[in-house]
Amino acid sequence: MAELQNLTVIGSGVLGSQIAFQAAYFGKTVTVYDISDEIVAGLPAKWQKLSEFYARDMAATPEQLEATTARITGTTDVTAALANADIVIEAVPENLELKRKVWAQIGAAAPSSTIFCTNSSTLLPSDIAQSTGHPERFLALHFANEVWRNNTGEVMGHAGTDPAAVQAVLGFAEQIGMVPIHVEKEQPGYILNTLLVPLLGAATHLWVNDVASVEDIDRTWRTATGSPLGPFQILDVVGMETLYQINLNTGTDESRRVAERIKTEYIDKGYKGRDTGRGFYTYE
Questions:
Q1: What pTM was computed for the model?
Q2: Same domain for 218 and 112
């Protein structure tokens, strides 16, 4: 397959914006699609914030960062966003029906050679692939939060994915500074979240059942394991919206209680995680 130079990112939330910036930093031409003019108008502020992180953590120069933002275009026109796409990465909320609806639109509008990737954290490619109309070109490319630091790119196809598409996406991940990880068989949560989700689920279990405070749960994990972050500090990076959607869709009584508490105590008050300055903790 030809080099995947033109990237379209669908959704400019925490991870969508990071993926776009990371790809542009490594020389890709990036179009970011989102649903409202207000969201698109706010993208330059996200690029400025990410520029600060790249200057701090990647020793990026002002010239590199200026070139990075120049490679990114934002739009609310999905047809225009997909017109020249070599590869699409979808980063919309973890809701299966929403993702199927979005992928039906993408599949109808994208060029015939475009490779389709979901950044879903928990859903299987085979759950979504048929919605695209082109399942042979559909697979998952999963990023960890703070992609410039935690730079794994987990690539996972489904039984009907063209092996050439898998190889192309593994190459793309490496080109944008990720460590490409080939997940050879469909696995909910890939490798990273298969390891991480039980920890975070255990932490929210302790919290929603009032066994211990957020601070004491985190303090226990950090002290006993030497980890730099406790589970709730990790959840603040993940973001409350993602935590809410995952628990809402899990279907157990406990997950429902976690979702309800997250919504009423955090999301409804605008406390959506570290990216907004407050989640379980407050950040400057």
A1: 0.83
A2: no
